[in-house]
Amino acid sequence: MSTTITDKDLDTDVLPERIRRFPFPFSGDSYRYSANVEPARKTVETEVGSWGSFLIDTDEHYLPDLQERDQVLEKDPTRTQVLPHMRLAVWDAITTLLPAMAEEHPRTMSYHRNGNTCRWGNTLQNLELEFTIGDDDSLPMGPLRFLGSQIQDDIVFLDAREDTLWLDAGLVTFAADWSFGFDVGMKFMEVHTPVPRVQTEPVINRAHQFLLRLQPGGQFRRTNWTMTVDRRLDTSTETYPDWAPDRGTIAADPDLPNRLHLRVEVQHMLCLPHTGAVLFLIRSYLLPLSDIAQVPVWRERLGHVLAELPEDMAEYKGISRYRKAASTWLLA
To answer: Is the separation of the CB atoms in 41 and 53 below 8 Å?
Structure first.
């Protein structure tokens, strides 16, 4: 490798917060599908910092991310849908997540409840409002749209019936190469049919069974990853013409280290306490290779993962055309 700095020599205090708090997902030099499920709010120590202490994380991108969400929804309101039987689950999510946010971020957020009357404060948005649980009109834009205006995570609701899970509601503006609008109303296993090896490896089925067995109040998480050109959160199927061409040109771009981002999803899975619906939160973090390279062990590990990844998995993640260039740069 071109750098002689080791992790032992690295002064982590000088690294920006976006690196110190990044959920780097690799523990070895290769990657295969795994459930990698662990309890929520479990702090994970990394070579340069930590992540995972919060159920709902907020960072330097909080306001810009929510502004981008507003823009996406203005262009395409179908990114949020709630089938009628999921209305109560949305309220269950609100009364679960807002108190958790106030507990985790007491300097910026507050939540007080008296019967069905609630008061929510968010100083990051200069917001103070009162609403009534169960009264959709008491929240601006309606319950799900309001919840999506307070957290950076995408929001998906899974309903359990007929011994399976159904994707029956959600607000998804930052999908990584999939379409929420297409998947609404589908079974969990149908949603994951495009994943390679889904028929030959038991990971997806095990995840399905795990979610079906979740008990009310249960909170867990896992990570997933891909790569994205530029810090673009919305790489949904609907916007494919806007971002797909970059996949074919980035390998030859001299600015590849700054433009190509490792994209990590921290996915929280909660069984809501009153309705029993499964709440699936997807928080996306993006870090350019130039930042990854500031941590020598991350640089080398990601380089090896990209070089070793089986071609069918690389193709599914959409990285097959540039992963060699990225790996070569990282391991140079």
So the answer is: yes
